[in-house]
Amino acid sequence: MNSNVNIAAVTLAVGGAGLFMIVFLIANAIMRSVRERIPEFAVLMTVGYREAQLAWLVVMEAAVPCLLGALLGTGVAALVARLPSQLLNRDLRQLVSNSDIPPAVLGVALGLAVLLALASAAAPLRRLRRISVTDALAGR
């Protein structure tokens, strides 16, 4: 019970590493998607789409998995919190007794998911901003 390990710091470090990994994975997937569709983005620019409209498409592509993950994760946590205590072992029963997830938690989760999507879309947006329409249409 009484150890010299700061559990809060360890938990924060593990959570931070997990968050960094999620940002890295989503940014990598969005970067690959943007890289594969550079000719399509060049055509859209040629047709008259503004850079802000294309950036909105990329951000929305990053936001969909982030928002779905936040919704599903919060929903599963709410379901587990409502499980009958007979289904849980003794330690978990004490942990979740009389605990409900307030609606504000869903709002915070969705807000953080949007921030995660914006952070993940930053590098692909920078690449999209630097493309040359003529080079992209020529396949260079």
Number of strands: 0
Give the overall average pLDDT. 85
Shape: elongated
Percentage of residues assigned to helices: over 70%
Rg, rounded, reads 21 Å
Largest beta sheet, briefly? none
What count of helical segments does DSSP give? 6
**What is the CA-CA span between the terminal residues?**
63 Å
Percent in strands: under 5%
* Series of secondary-structure elements, N-terminal to C-terminal: HHHHHH
Identify low-pLDDT runs.
none
Q: SS-based structural class?
A: mainly alpha
Structure write-up:
The protein has about 140 residues and is mainly α. The protein has six helices and no strands. The longest helix is centred in the middle third of the chain and has 31 residues. The mean pLDDT is about 85.
What layout of secondary structure does this protein have?
Blueprint: H1 7-36, H2 38-47, H3 51-81, H4 90-96, H5 103-129, H6 133-138
Helix pairs in contact: 1-3, 1-5, 3-5
Short structural description:
This protein has 140 residues and is mainly α. 79% of the residues lie in helices and 0% in strands. The protein has helices spanning 7-36, 38-47, 51-81, 90-96, 103-129, 133-138.
What distinguishing features does this structure have?
single chain; 140 residues; mainly alpha; elongated
